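Dear support,

We are seeing what looks like truncated structure output for some complexes. This example has two components. We would appreciate it if you could run it in full and send us the complete token output so we can diff it against ours.
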Amino acid sequence: MSASLLVVGSIALDTLRTPFGDVADEPGGSAAFFSVAASFFSPVRLVGVVGEDFPAAGRKVLESRHIDLAGLQVVPGGKTFRWHGSYQGAMNEAKTESVHLNVFGDFRPRIPATFRDSEIVFLANGSPVTQASVLDQVESPALVVADTMNLWIETQKDALMALLGRVDGLVLNEGEARMLAGDQNLVAAAHKILGWGPKFVVVKKGEHGALLVNHGLGSREGTPVKTICPLPAYPSTLVRDPTGAGDSFAGGMMGYLAAGGKYDFPHLMRAMAYGTVTASFAIEDFGLRRFDRLTIDEIDGRLREYHEMLEF
Amino acid sequence: MSASLLVVGSIALDTLRTPFGDVADEPGGSAAFFSVAASFFSPVRLVGVVGEDFPAAGRKVLESRHIDLAGLQVVPGGKTFRWHGSYQGAMNEAKTESVHLNVFGDFRPRIPATFRDSEIVFLANGSPVTQASVLDQVESPALVVADTMNLWIETQKDALMALLGRVDGLVLNEGEARMLAGDQNLVAAAHKILGWGPKFVVVKKGEHGALLVNHGLGSREGTPVKTICPLPAYPSTLVRDPTGAGDSFAGGMMGYLAAGGKYDFPHLMRAMAYGTVTASFAIEDFGLRRFDRLTIDEIDGRLREYHEMLEF
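Here is the complete output from our reference environment:
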């Protein structure tokens, strides 16, 4: 049975340069990538903010995926969050050319009454204070997962630590996990983070896949308790734009969990595999474009292929 | 039925500093790590060179693993190859403090008559000219696999390209694969290398695992042809010294292949998993020390654990 899935985070207009070309004012942002990716598995409720300049085409991308936009604030006269970035060579890392938070800088998420009973909450990257304010507005979610980034680890560590006590799972990048835990060994770093509250940690490693470390989610009856799952990325030859890969990964993962409504370790492993495959599509074209022509059958087909690659 | 396995490469005395301590004149080198790792699966024939200063204890490490040392040359009055390196932080990369090739600089491998019928040949890292001279001395191996490194890609590209036409498989590091192929995308780089001769390429990615790309080895009858296998590294918390991880990986992989005597893609996938697990033991202690107290039961146990981690 499908569980209701709420995501709160940024919606942006991205201007990008990759070895495959340039795009300007491309709809993006963590909550947009997340919700479009998740929508292939489950209905999605989105809370975010844009300016009056957000194009109708961008809104249509979200609407065409049947994302519930009741929580999308449009600030009159405001400008949408803008990120300008570029990628070179192996495209492992984005170089930020400029950031203009615009209306996202004053974002105070207001969760619509119809969203307050959400069973699953994903707090996409944002200030831990803002993320906590979302939790104050939802009733009794069964599963809360947060993303975070180096900026908050550096500037709002206390608020982030407080938030960790309120979430079931934390999703973050490799370098961020090392920074937050102060440990260079990723597995050790994840274990340390688990000591601060979350039941599981998912470390995103970009082209090297992801690592799930768990100590709080049970296993299916009769099977041994698994605590760790390292998954490689899907081996892509077509990588045009890595923007949003991590958020698409999280979207596929959380969308799959919402679809099943089960939050044990085996489901989380499979959810991570779905996240991996979903992200592998996202990077095949600029921004959200690949999702426009993606089907769940393609996702399932690639998951089977990916599964087979790992059957040694 | 076990196939005879020959390895030719360096034997060294390593002086190392890692965050876990210092060691001096520790027995190592590509052929030593390879052969000790492979010896858990299959008998190994070693061809290499050391100086008179190579300690009896170092020789004993090899002898205790029943490695056939008929091809081990000892140069009277000569000094053994020495490498002095250090690792910091996440220990992803060794910093070379100094290298003294000593007797390895003039190494002209002489394959003993009793080794010339070897069915499997592993050309550990060395000049492609030297590697080719080994192939000139063996009769009709069923499987030839070579390792290489950036030095040869930069200085002996023509000889390396000629060698690629004579090997079944190439094993190399991530950065070296990108450099050799001139392509930042690893899968594309591996495909390009396949166009130059090898039937399969194994890209070693250190703490991020390994990638196998194949176009020449068949599959088991009745199963679909698989062409690619991305495996994560075993998620280790105990990493004291990464030296020799890549050679231990190759040793476990080739040793497993030799033990089975089958060179199809499914065996190669499983061999890569064994290589992954074998390498995960090597890094738990300095130099070859962990192998001294390792058993095949431990390897098999960790392989089962690793296999389960990937069952989503």
